[in-house]
Amino acid sequence: MTAFIDANVIIRHLTADPPAAGRRATDFLASVDELLLPDVIAAECVFVLESFYELRKDEVARVMRAVIAFESIHTIDPALLLRALEVYETDHLDFADAYLVACAESAGVREIVSFDRDFDRVTSVRRLEP
Question: Do 68 and 78 touch, CB atoms closer than 8 A?
């Protein structure tokens, strides 16, 4: 079976909240051949883990790396998501901004137009204000 996976299944697997749903999610993940994880759903997982479950960025990055490495989970570009998690964790950007940096690097673009000064912490890109 091939199917897209929603964030709530991943969150239940990672948090076991509630416990019965956590067990069902974990059992399901272990039983399927291929689940497709869109980048936007990975971003939703990061947001929920950080905001609702109050995990630190390093904890979120660690568990999301484990999700991406899960045998049955497939992403469009795992290297891009892993780089976004690295920027998110090390440069302390929110995940959307970290993902934008990873996209810029992947595309060979070194400038990002933004009012957000957080990009100034990343050496691989240069922020331009409109």
Answer: yes
Q: pLDDT digit string (tens) for 25-72?
A: 999 999 999 999 999 999 999 999 999 999 999 999 999 999 999 999
pTM of the complete model beyond 0.85: yes
Residue 3 backbone dihedrals phi, psi, to 5 degrees = -155, 160
CATH of segment(s) 1-76: 3.40.50.1010
Cα separation of 122 and 124, whole Å?
Answer: 6
Contact 105, 98 (CB under 8 A): no
Nearest alpha carbon to residue 105 among 86, 80, 88: 80
Give me the residue spans of the domains in the chain.
1-76, 77-129
Nearest CA-CA partner of 82 in 94, 65, 105: 65
